[in-house]
Write a structure and sequence with these properties.
202 residues
């Protein structure tokens, strides 16, 4: 039966069904599905003024890549901090104070460096081992005076647990490369009965 002979309400329903059958698949989709996606904001794109629910999602960076970039920096900071703490502990020890005082009162040391003997650098770095618990002290650091600069070495050992430290080397290397032995056979060991010996017997 042709559509024009149907009743009005049946004719309208039939015509709508006919249009649905002859229309393309995307003709009756909601209008929002045709909207294009908005790219996510970039680091230098400025503030996000509007926000849409159908915008593209940003890419997720794997966490291990971030750790690979920041881990070396973190390890370097921790290493430098630890070395600085240990060096400050060495520079504040009684061994360094005793050796520096002995150098100030040494005739050979004052002849090479002059008066006002102190650390060469603003932030002194104490090189070597300082292990009084196991009886090993082998350190060196830069010094200076009114006449010149140098590098002082000090080495002392304790053979037994309840024994005393015995100075093996106490020398001063000048700027021109000469090594001056501050502890010779004719001079008494200036480190006897000092805090270095007292700490070893604790």
């Amino acid at each position: 039966m042709p559509l024009r002979y149907l009743k009005p309400h049946l004719y309208c329903r039939s015509r709508i069904a006919y249009q649905h059958l002859n229309s393309p698949p995307n003709a009756f989709l909601p209008a929002t599905s045709k909207r294009t996606l908005i790219a996510p904001p970039q680091p230098n794109s400025g503030p996000l003024m509007t926000r849409r629910s159908d915008r593209a999602l940003p890419n997720i960076v794997p966490s291990y890549r971030i750790w690979l970039k920041t881990a070396p920096i973190f390890i370097a900071i921790i290493t430098v901090s630890a070395l600085g703490i240990f060096n400050y502990q060495k520079s504040s020890s009684s061994v360094v104070a005793a050796t520096l005082y002995a150098l100030r009162t040494s005739e050979l040391g004052r002849r090479e460096l002059g008066d006002e003997i102190y650390f060469r650098d603003m932030w002194p770095w104490i090189w070597g081992e300082m292990n009084q618990l196991h009886g090993r002290v082998n350190i060196g650091y830069g010094v200076k005076g009114t006449k010149g600069k140098g590098y002082m070495r000090f080495r002392s050992e304790r053979k037994t647990r309840m024994g005393y430290f015995e100075t093996k080397e106490w020398s001063l290397e000048t700027e021109d490369g000469r090594i001056v032995q501050l502890l010779d056979d004719g001079r008494v060991d200036p480190f006897k009965n000092t805090t270095l010996q007292a700490e070893s017997s604790d």
